[in-house]
């Protein structure tokens, strides 16, 4: 709780991962991927309740074993490839017997976010009365360097051909990294999106911003996890 505001941490983890089978419970070095997020959230000094939304009994069992609540089962209709995250969030909020002021959305595919980042982001949102705060990282490629193909010819994604500038001469651009989403629940229900005119940025760079989506991402995450274990040994 912060300034009298109750915080719900919601982990979303469906069972139908295709790119990396059983991704959410696959061991990332010493523990299941899901456990990295649970352990970081459980150490937060602001989270009032930590729950998971999942359709998978296996994921539910792993979550419980690491101390995360599983107060409901997500229906299969909300665990499809095209399911909206807003529908999953609404289902979770509607199936809890108590109310909260802020939602902290955590995805298991960002295993290296820290408890410090969770608390700092949450504190910033609540104390500044920010309705939506989303973690972002600086883009590796500036939009000026992004192209589509017309046949074999490069076409600037911006639609304009301009003088090639050095990256350091261009303003920084940012993208969602999927690690942290904090929202005033009433505001989120009204707008049904994390992308609003009032959305503010919480910047995370480096390995803590990694989002695991592909097998190559997983390989990189394994190397990072191994390095962290050796560092803390």
TrEMBL record:
UniProt-recorded Gene Ontology molecular function terms: N-acylneuraminate cytidylyltransferase activity
Gene3D superfamilies reported in the protein's UniProt record: Spore Coat Polysaccharide Biosynthesis Protein SpsA, Chain A
One of the Pfam families matching this protein, by short name: CTP_transf_3
Alphabetized InterPro entries for the sequence: CMP-NeuNAc_synthase (IPR050793), Cytidylyl_trans (IPR003329), Nucleotide-diphossugar_trans (IPR029044)
Keywords: Nucleotidyltransferase, Transferase
Name of the protein in question: N-acylneuraminate cytidylyltransferase/CMP-N,N'-diacetyllegionaminic acid synthase
Organism of derivation: Halopseudomonas litoralis
């Amino acid at each position: 709780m912060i300034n009298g505001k109750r915080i719900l941490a919601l982990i979303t983890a469906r069972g139908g991962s295709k790119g990396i089978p059983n991704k959410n419970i696959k061991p990332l070095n010493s523990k299941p991927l899901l456990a990295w997020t649970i352990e970081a959230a459980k150490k937060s000094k602001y989270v009032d309740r930590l729950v998971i939304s999942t359709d998978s009994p296996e994921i539910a069992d792993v979550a419980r074993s690491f101390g995360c609540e599983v107060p409901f089962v997500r229906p299969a209709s909300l665990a499809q490839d095209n399911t909206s995250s807003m529908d999953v969030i609404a289902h979770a909020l509607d199936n809890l017997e108590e109310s909260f002021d802020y939602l902290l959305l955590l995805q298991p595919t960002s295993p290296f976010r820290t408890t410090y980042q969770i608390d700092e982001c949450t504190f910033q949102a609540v104390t500044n009365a920010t309705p939506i705060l989303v973690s972002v990282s600086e883009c590796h490629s500036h939009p000026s360097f992004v192209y589509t193909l017309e046949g074999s010819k490069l076409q600037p994604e911006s639609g304009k051909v301009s003088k090639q500038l050095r990256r350091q001469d261009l303003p920084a651009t940012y993208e969602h990294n999927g690690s942290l989403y904090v929202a005033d629940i009433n505001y989120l229900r009204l707008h049904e999106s994390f992308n609003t005119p009032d959305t503010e940025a919480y910047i995370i760079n480096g390995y803590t911003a990694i989002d695991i989506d592909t097998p190559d991402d997983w390989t990189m995450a394994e190397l990072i996890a191994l390095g962290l274990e050796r560092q803390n040994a």
